[in-house]
Amino acid sequence: MPRDYKHRAQKRPAKKPLPGWLWLLTGLLLGGFVVGLVWLKGQSLDAGGEWVGAKPDRPPQGKPESSAGVEVPPPPKPRFDFYNMLPKMEVVVPDDELDQEPNAAPDSTPSAPATYLLQVGSFRRAEDAERLKAQLALLGFEAKVVSARISAQDTRYRVRSGPYKGKDALNHARQRLADNGFKVIVIRVDGN
Asked: In 43-125, which residue ranges form alpha helices assigned H by DSSP?
């Protein structure tokens, strides 16, 4: 007689869920592994450097390990450019020196009056220097922009007015600029 296998094929054993203690154990082990990795990463050869506990009787023997035979180049020597820059720089004349009369020897011949420039501003951008030059032109001053390289990365644009022959012309121009709110620096071009 034939048997009916239909109901037997549909019966599968029910899967039992994993118990909670197994999930807890797995989570603890995984968390401990991650914390261990973080702790190992935080430990390095050059971290700390101080002894923990009692100091050893003798210092460690042997050479310290070098970084895989890589030779570290010495630091570059400082480069002194001021020997070349100083002769090219202008001399700023203090105000009290302008007020002093030069001491002339009795047998010397009178010299020509000194020539001065007035530096009205110094800027990093050429546009700012040109703007000040235009403002000075509106006041009746003839000015020019001179670029000066301070270092390899720094260039300054100086706005200068002049030249002025003698102290009278210089003081008149200084007074007019001061009346219009400009602070100036006096630069002697040639002279005594």
From this structure: 82-85, 95-99
Q: H helices within 15-60, ranges in order?
A: 20-42
Question: What's the CA gap between 29 and 26, in Å, rounded?
Answer: 5
Joined tokens for residue 149:
């390289």
State the Cα–Cα distance between residues 192 and 185, nearest whole angstrom: 18
Residue at token pair 């914390």:
35
Give pLDDT tens digits for 61-99.
Answer: 766 555 556 677 787 776 767 666 666 666 666 666 666
Centre a 10 Å sphere on the Cβ of residue 19 and count the other Cβ atoms it contains: 9
CATH number of 113-190: 3.30.70.1070
Assign 182 to helix, strand or coil.
coil
Residue 155 and residue 184 in contact, taking contact as beta carbons nearer than 8 Å: no
pLDDT tens per residue, range 144-188: 888 888 877 888 898 988 788 888 888 888 888 888 888 888 888
In total, the chain counts a number of residues equal to 192
